[in-house]
C-alpha cells in the first residue's frame, strides 16, 4: 500500500500494532460494514508521522490510538444525537482503509494520546471502549448480580468494567481454554463456570440450580445463538438480558414472549462504541483496567491468513498484527 495522503484536518499514523477481533472474520467474508477492496484493522495504535495544517490536538511523534467510527453528523439518526446508529458511518478498517498497514490516515479528532502505554495494551482500548458503551446501555443498579456468558478479550474487559460499575457479584460462564484460563488468572470475576461443548445442558442446569433467583443482568458475549437462546432462563424477574456478541446475520432464535412479559424482562443490545476512548483511558491512567497479557500472539501482516485461522479456532486470547 502506498502511504495515504492527508487533508488539513487529518493525521497520518505510523501503525505499531493493531488488534484482530471476531468482527474482522465477518469483514473477511464481506459481511457487516465491509466494503472491498479493504485494508481491515479497527484497533490500531501507533505514532503520529504527519499532521494537517489545522491540527492542534496532537503533534508529530505523539503515540495515539484511533477511534475507528466516524458518523456523518447529518443523517436522520445523527441529527437526533444517535451518532452510533449513523446510516452513513465511516468505519476505519470496515469501509475505508484501517490499521493493518504501515500507515493509516485518520481525522485528527479520532486520535487520542496514549503517552507511554505499551502498544499491545493500547490496541485493547477500542474493544474496552465498546465495553464502556455496554456499561452505559446496561445501567447496572448497585448491588447487582451479573452473569457473563463468554470471556473473550471484550468479555474480559467488560467483566472488569462491570465490577467497577455497580455489580456486587459477577459469574463468568465460558467454555474452557486460554480465555477462561486468563480470566481466572486475572481474578476478574467472583465465580467461574466451564460450559463444555460436550455436556452444556448439564452444566447449564448446575448454573441454574446454584442461582435459583437468576441474575439481575445476563450478558451474552459469546456470539453463540444457542447460548443466547438459553440466556433468557437465567434472567431474574425484572432483570435485563444484554445482547453483546456478534451473530451471523442469518441466525434466528426462539424465546418465550410469555416469559419476557410475565417476568418483565428487558432485552437490550450494545452494538459498538463511539467517543468512549477518553473514558476508558481514565480507567487505564488510574491503574484500574488490567490490559497486560490479553494480547498473547502477534503476527506480521504477511502472516494474515495464519492469524485469521487462530482467531477462527479460538486457540488465542487476542491476536495482534505488529509492525515494529
Ligand atoms: Zn473489534
Ligand atoms: Zn449519520
From TrEMBL:
Keywords, sorted A to Z: Metal-binding, Oxidoreductase, Zinc
Enoyl reductase (ER) domain mapped to chain residues: 2-321
Xref: PANTHER family: L-THREONINE 3-DEHYDROGENASE
Molecular-function GO terms, alphabetical: oxidoreductase activity; zinc ion binding
Species: Ampelomyces quisqualis (Powdery mildew agent)
Domain of life the protein comes from: Eukaryota
Any coiled-coil regions, as ranges: none
Entry-linked PROSITE patterns: ADH_ZINC (PS00059)
Entries under InterPro entries matching the protein: ADH-like_C, ADH-like_N, ADH_Zn_CS, ER, GroES-like_sf, NAD(P)-bd_dom_sf, Zn_alcohol_dh
Pfam families listed in its UniProt record: ADH_N, ADH_zinc_N
Protein name: L-threonine 3-dehydrogenase
Cofactor: Zn(2+)
Amino acid at each position: 500500500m502506498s502511504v495515504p495522503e492527508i487533508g488539513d484536518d487529518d493525521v497520518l499514523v505510523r501503525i505499531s500494532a493493531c488488534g484482530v477481533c471476531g468482527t474482522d472474520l465477518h469483514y473477511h467474508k464481506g459481511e457487516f460494514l465491509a466494503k472491498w477492496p479493504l485494508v481491515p484493522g479497527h484497533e490500531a495504535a501507533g505514532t503520529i508521522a504527519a499532521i494537517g495544517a489545522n491540527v492542534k490536538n496532537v503533534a508529530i511523534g505523539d503515540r495515539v490510538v484511533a477511534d475507528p467510527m466516524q458518523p456523518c453528523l447529518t443523517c436522520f439518526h445523527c441529527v437526533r444525537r444517535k451518532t452510533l446508529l449513523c446510516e452513513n458511518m465511516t468505519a476505519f478498517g470496515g469501509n475505508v482503509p484501517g490499521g493493518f498497514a504501515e500507515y493509516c490516515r485518520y481525522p485528527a479528532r479520532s486520535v487520542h494520546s496514549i503517552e507511554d502505554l505499551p502498544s499491545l495494551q493500547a490496541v485493547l482500548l477500542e474493544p474496552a471502549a465498546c465495553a464502556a458503551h455496554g456499561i452505559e446501555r446496561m445501567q447496572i443498579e448497585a448491588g447487582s448480580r451479573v452473569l457473563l456468558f463468554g470471556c473473550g478479550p471484550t468479555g474480559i474487559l467488560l467483566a472488569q468494567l462491570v465490577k467497577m460499575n455497580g455489580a456486587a457479584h459477577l459469574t463468568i460462564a465460558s467454555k474452557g481454554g486460554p480465555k477462561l484460563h486468563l480470566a481466572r488468572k486475572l481474578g476478574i470475576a467472583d465465580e467461574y463456570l466451564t460450559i463444555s461443548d460436550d455436556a452444556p445442558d448439564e452444566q447449564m442446569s448446575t448454573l441454574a440450580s446454584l442461582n435459583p433467583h437468576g441474575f439481575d443482568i445476563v450478558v451474552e458475549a459469546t456470539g453463540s445463538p444457542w447460548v443466547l437462546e438459553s440466556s433468557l432462563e437465567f434472567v431474574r424477574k425484572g432483570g435485563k438480558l444484554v445482547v453483546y456478541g456478534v451473530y451471523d446475520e442469518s441466525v434466528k432464535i426462539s424465546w418465550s414472549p410469555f416469559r419476557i412479559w410475565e417476568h418483565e424482562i428487558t432485552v437490550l443490545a450494545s452494538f459498538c462504541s463511539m467517543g468512549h476512548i477518553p473514558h476508558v483511558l481514565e480507567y487505564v491512567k488510574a491503574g484500574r483496567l488490567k490490559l497486560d497479557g490479553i494480547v498473547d500472539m502477534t503476527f506480521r501482516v504477511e502472516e494474515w491468513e495464519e492469524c485469521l485461522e487462530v482467531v477462527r479456532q479460538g486457540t488465542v486470547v487476542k491476536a495482534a498484527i505488529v509492525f515494529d
